[in-house]
Amino acid sequence: MLEIRPNCEYCDKDLPPDADDAMICTYECTFCQQCVAEILENVCPNCGGGFTPRPIRPKTARRKGVSLAYQQAATKRVHTKFGLDEIKAFSALAKTIDPKAR
């Protein structure tokens, strides 16, 4: 189950569970759309994969036990360990390769 991390790992923008600008990679690294487009160039600085919009977990349990009330979002903030220069150099290696082929 997704952690639903609370922030962009680069700029630290709040990304609540219903944020429509939260993006994740296959390892659930979480960034805002602006950072994915302008800083990361659709290359996860941790794994090199691409990003997809993060699903929004339902607020209301339409099925018993399935909603934010039962599976709460994470509260621990995560930050990338890479600086801007390192991110740019890493993304330059992969940004021209379609994420499906990385």
UniProtKB/TrEMBL annotation:
Gene3D superfamilies: Zinc/RING finger domain, C3HC4 (zinc finger). InterPro entries: DUF1272, Znf_RING/FYVE/PHD. This is DUF1272 domain-containing protein. It holds the Pfam family DUF1272.
